[in-house]
């Protein structure tokens, strides 16, 4: 028996709406369980503790520096991948995507092994130490997020109509002038979104950071590492407080992202 079109549409809406509700209830339940595990007084008492404040400051500092370095390098790389055709492009594109699919712990282990090579030893002895040190946090975060930044920025440049750049070149713009005066202004919302997502991902990075920089309290203790140390000492309430801080940071980043998206659509 053939189902009428109106009924099929209604069943489809019910199925999709039910799936959305299940996911919303699942993740909402997780957030409520965190919020119900501690009181507001306990949360704020832990929030202003020296250790958590240190973890917040270190996370913000390293994530900001990491994002700056990642975007500065990913921006021209993404533009080249989006606009130029050259031999080996697919191979380079695939290699740049590897950090996205590899486990962060594997990336941290690779960085640790790199530190034992001649180049790594030279950097450690003559430039800066990154094994079990704060620079190692930046290096680990950079390794994890630079591929994400490049992928987001490439998608942004891919959406720009190449005819705009072609017209600019016909009117006498050099390649750099076309990039600076045409591509960058058109890509501004996408660049801002990439910066926010890259920063938020750097703040939440754990696997590569703990592998390369270690988990030393009040030294290399970012927010994710603070969660790890709290559970290691069975201090669950502190872990929950740090998780709520990360939820707040991540939620704020997503709200900023949606605000940027809304402004770009309005224009």
* Separation, N- and C-terminal Cα atoms: 49 Å
How large a portion of the residues is in β-strands, by DSSP E? Answer: under 5%
Number of helices: 12
CATH class of the largest domain: Mainly Alpha
Main beta-sheet strand count, sense and barrel state:
none
Count of spatially separate domains: 2
Shape: globular
- Low-pLDDT runs: none
**Taking Cα atoms only, what radius of gyration do you get, to the nearest Å?**
23 Å
Helix content: over 70%
- Using the coordinates shown, work out and report the CATH topology of the largest domain: MetI-like fold
Mean pLDDT: 88
Which class of secondary structure composition applies to the elements?
mainly alpha
The ordered string of helix (H) and strand (E) elements is: HHHHHHHHHHHH
What does the model show?
The protein has helices spanning 5-37, 40-47, 50-83, 89-101, 104-114, 118-126, 134-158, 162-170, 175-203, 207-213, 223-232, 236-266. With 267 residues, it is an all-alpha fold. It has 2 domains: 1-37; 40-266, MetI-like fold, CATH 1.10.3720.10. α1 (5-37) crosses α12 (236-266), α4 crosses α7 (134-158) and α11 (223-232) runs antiparallel to α12 (236-266). The longest helix has 34 residues, at 50-83.
